Amino acid sequence: MENLGAKATFLRNDFVKLMASIDPATKGLWGKMNLHQTIEHMSYSFRQASGKDPYILETPEEHLPRMQAFLQSDKPFKENTPNKLLPDEPAPPVHENIQDSLNELQGEIEHFFKEYAQNPEKVVTNPFFGHLDYDMQVQLLYKHAWHHLRQFGVNEVS
To answer: Which domains are assigned to the chain?
Structure first.
């Protein structure tokens, strides 16, 4: 997991700005969620990673080494990666406007970093990737963030 510090900095300082720069009318290149729903979906992901919204492990233990090897790689999530914990049809946004959802996302990101700064040995169970420490959570969140940015046409700059 190269550049973990850079990935954390990106999540903390740049991710929300990039999401905010996307025209809300932009249709995703894949998937069913619109931009507003995707922003709120990412808030849920940060809540889960910080331990606010606990989940049980869904992946059989014997598959975890393969799942974690993928997580540690630079391979992106595939388009339309299924998530059996999400409904077939995305839920409507909780917040009335995108700015409120972006503010919530930034707050969840800050909470995530504060939580691990206060509890550096914390491990949170991700339903698909298993028991993850801070480094693995950052890796997952970074990979997940870029999955959704690419969904709306934003490309990584090396």
So the answer is: 4-76+93-151 (1.20.120)
